Amino acid sequence: MKFFIDTANLQEIQEAHDLGVLDGVTTNPSLMAKEGIFGHDNVMAHYKKICEIVDGDISAEVIATDYETIIKEGEFLAELHPNIVVKVPMIRDGVKAIRYFSEKGIKTNCTLVFSAGQAILAAKAGATYVSPFVGRLDDVSTDGMQLIDQIVQIYSNYGYQTQVLAASVRHVMHLVQCAEIGADVVTCPLNVITSLLNHPLTDIGLSKFLADHAKGNK
Ligand code: E4P
């Protein structure tokens, strides 16, 4: 399972990269705004900086919602760096654009997916990744993980090449369940990745090993 970090914060991206387990990055307009990155030129320059840190797929989201402008924005983004994946919302013109990008060999991430039907449509259109939002479904009392399970099953039934990128992953159990189900990718904040390190028995065991080692060196 690939690990993507879901942030536009360069320090966090660098930290996850330095851990040696990072495969890519996802961003969205809200994450860009959170870092105070506004304006076309600043946003594009920021994507380039991310691409300099991580040699993996970097999702950059279009802002347009009409076909012609989605194509224009997506082609511009794809020209920025070979690792850019054009992130397109699950809307009518978005699906049409994903088909266009797919035929042009431009990688896509179909975002804001909340149902199995939407995921089937994304795969039929030729999306490279589909992003079902686990946490946001949980937020409205719907089992987000069940959707991941459904999509993985459906894609396997038909051999769809679209990769299931579990998004809106909020905690370690989400990540572990995605791995059990067989999601291709999870994207999550840095704290979810670093939380994987933690177990109290590891801390207790290490303290004892070091204390016992110190006894022999007195
Ligand atoms: C996906 O690519 C989105 O950027 C993200 O995972 C949304 O997560 P959130 O629901 O925690 O905002």
Describe the structure.
This protein is α/β, with parallel strands linked by helices and 218 residues long. 56% of the residues lie in helices and 17% in strands. It contains 11 helices and 8 strands. The chain has an 8-stranded parallel barrel with strand order 1-2-3-4-5-6-7-8, surrounded by 6 helices. Helix 5 packs parallel to helix 6, helix 6 packs parallel to helix 8 and helix 8 (144-158) runs parallel beside helix 9. It is globular, with a radius of gyration of 19 Å. The chain has helices at residues 10-19, 29-34, 40-53, 67-80, 92-104, 116-125, 134-139, 144-158, 172-181, 190-195, 200-216, and strands at 2-6, 24-26, 57-61, 84-89, 108-113, 129-132, 163-166, 185-188. Helix 9 links the parallel strand 7 and strand 8 (185-188). Bound molecules: erythose-4-phosphate. Erythose-4-phosphate (E4P) is lined by residues 6, 26, 28, 111, 131, 133, 135-136, 167-168, 187.
What descriptive keywords fit this protein?
218 residues; alpha/beta; 11 helices; 17% strand; globular; binds erythose-4-phosphate
In a few lines, what is going on in this structure?
α5 (92-104) runs parallel beside α6. The protein is globular and about 75 Å long.
Give me the strand/helix succession. Answer: EHEHHEHEHEHEHHEHEHH
Overall pLDDT, averaged? 98
Structural class: alpha/beta
Tally of individual helices: 11
- The count of β-strands is 8
Q: What small molecules does this complex bind?
A: erythose-4-phosphate
Pathway: Carbohydrate degradation; pentose phosphate pathway; D-glyceraldehyde 3-phosphate and beta-D-fructose 6-phosphate from D-ribose 5-phosphate and D-xylulose 5-phosphate (non-oxidative stage): step 2/3
Keywords: Cytoplasm, Pentose shunt, Schiff base, Transferase
Subcellular location: Cytoplasm
Enzyme class: transferase
